[in-house]
Design brief:
Length: 183
């Protein structure tokens, strides 16, 4: 079994649920993917990190850092950064806060001192539905002078997120789409 097949198995075992769920987007759905159940599992985290790192390595534009919105992206950016170090091609991680700090630097980004000036970054998320979270992250990192070179997710629910990102000029790349996950 390859890494992708094994990750699919873990997601289906630990993260995928059928039923009626209210999503962050406000939409109701007949299934839910609790990505953190996979990304906080040791093997799941490693496989997410490895597959996203491979995506970063194969990106036409060199990526200087990997980040995303807290809390969903926290274990993912850490996993990617750790895998990158083990592969002798270290990429620093950063985290985008939902709200700016109310003290000190009042920053939206954590880990910013590890990023080169005008860095090209990869933005990651566990599950994308409408793309709203990623669009907010894009705005915040670009406001800090960084360039978005890759937008990626573990699972694209195929419910408009890819289209919303494309409308802003960003391609959403996914390890799995809803269709490929449930196939």
């Amino acid at each position: 079994m390859n890494d992708r097949q094994r990750l699919k198995q873990i997601i289906l075992e630990k993260s995928y649920r059928e039923g009626t769920y209210l999503l962050t987007s406000g939409k109701e759905s007949d299934f839910y993917i609790d990505g953190k159940q996979t990304t906080l599992d040791a093997e799941g985290a490693y496989l997410c990190g490895k597959l996203l790192f491979e995506m970063i390595q194969n990106n036409p534009q060199k990526i200087d850092a990997v980040g995303g919105m807290t809390l969903g992206a926290d274990p993912i950016v850490t996993a990617v950064s750790l895998v990158s170090f083990l592969e002798k091609a270290p990429i620093p991680a950063f985290i985008v806060r939902k709200e700016s700090k109310k003290h000190g630097t009042e920053a939206y980004l954590e880990g910013q001192s590890n990023l080169p000036e005008a860095a090209v970054v990869a933005l990651v998320e566990d599950v994308v539905t409408t793309g709203g979270t990623l669009l907010k992250v894009i705005d915040r990192v670009e406001a800090q002078g960084y360039q978005v070179g890759l937008v990626a997710t573990i699972v694209d629910r195929q419910e408009g997120g890819g289209e919303a990102l494309a409308a802003r000029g960003y391609e959403l790349r996914a390890i799995f789409t809803r269709q490929s996950l449930l196939a």
